[in-house]
Amino acid sequence: MSTQESMRLPHHAAESEPPRRPGLILAFLCLAGFMTFLDVSIVNVALPTIEDELHISQTSLQYIVTTYGMLLGGFLLLTGRLADAFGRRRMLQTGLVLFALASLFAGFGQGAAMLIVARGAQGLGAAFIATAALSLLANNFEEGAERNKALGAWGALSGIAAVAGVTLGGLLTDGPGWRWIFFINVPIGLVCALIAPKVVAESRAAERSSSFDVAGAVTLTAGLVLLIFSLGQTVDDSDVPMGRVYGGFALSAILLIAFVLIERRAQAPLIPLGVFKRKSLRASNIVALLLLGTCVTLFFFASLFMQQVLDWSALKTGLAYVPLAVIVAVGAGVASQLVTKVAPKPVLMVGLALTSVGMFLLWRAPSDASYLVDLLPAFLLSGLGLGLSFVPVQVAAFTGTEEDESGLSAGLINTAQEVGGALGLAVAATYAFRRVEELTNWADGVPARVNQARTEVFHDAFLAGACFAVAGLLLTLILLPFVKASDQPAAAPAPAPAHD
Length: 500
Fold this sequence. Notes:
Elements: H1 3-8, H2 22-41, H3 47-54, H4 62-86, H5 88-107, H6 112-140, H7 145-174, H8 180-183, H9 185-199, H10 214-233, H11 242-265, H12 279-309, H13 314-320, H14 322-341, H15 344-363, H16 371-398, H17 406-432, H18 436-443, H19 447-479
Helix pairs in contact: 2-6, 2-7, 2-9, 4-5, 4-6, 4-10, 4-17, 5-6, 5-9, 6-7, 6-17, 7-13, 7-14, 7-16, 10-11, 10-17, 12-15, 12-16, 12-17, 12-19, 14-15, 14-16, 15-16, 15-19, 17-19, 18-19
């Protein structure tokens, strides 16, 4: 191994390791990450079918999506620290096996509770995978142009996977059945876990921590899950006592406040609060919350709109996303080149502006919408905007990061994305479904009115998604520093205390 490679990977285990093959390492890690990102959206097209077969109410469907995102987001920081301490490759393998087994359990789901629990277990496995894979990627490529290109590929795949998920979900749902959206993960996860030692070398932080903030991870996750559940209760079809709803919000606030207090006192906090002194990391995480809120809201409600308003099949709905998938890939490819030549900030601003316009177009789509006239332009603008946004937000999060902080940075940006997706969907669903009872009474079973009522519900959801994108654009303008990631020194001083 060359001197440069030794400096790049100083903490490999002493045992025999595979030769460093950058292209293969990047492809392998991106495949692992792709699988976890795919499962954020792959269930969306299948939701109406799952609703009918397992008898889940429409207002409860969001839990199938948000439970995955909440467990994934809530435990990313803890799994990032575990990866730094015990070995990033080892934690990657652990996550792959857990994800595969949970997918098998979900595929055999016979009821709402079983499916939602399995989705939570998938989310926990995905937390190990996403953080370990992204941390390994950051440590295998030097900061600057090389790492930016690798992160560009990762950011592109995270966006492409979100769109590919809805396309593949439609194909599988109308083909072998919705259960195969989970079964397909089983062989991929197990094979990747077996071949990992042949592809990527083990790495860990310079100093191993003997203390892990489990209390912080559990408190954060419980607070976020309870918040999501309480938001859903406000629009539940059943008569939920308002005392239970308000109590849920109060308990969620107490848990989140307790999390902050735990972090201030913990020997090895999940989130060293001083890390947010780094402006680029702070801004990128806030914007990532809003970006993924827009993204998940788009896929969840567009899938329902096409099937329940336009009366399209799952297959036709999935295929409708193909141009969106293509344009996301194009946007991400353009962004990966621009972030090194310009800076993440202007690229991100253009991306969020285009996404906002696309969401506003969906907001105006009529109940008899034409794909070519009403949906395709909105999908192309939103897709291009998302593709342009995913890459710079990832690059900005890692700008100035030292090797020992890579696990923390990976955990933070992934947490922001997953929590943002789950919270964004919960907020959009709460806003959109608030008028369901009123509109149902107005429709009075008349088909034309029922269709119009559903359209108004989905319009409100798209408007909420557009507002997330606009807020992200404004915060990018105000908070994100104008710094070219390629100009950052390879060994910049740590902007915050090390988390180990």
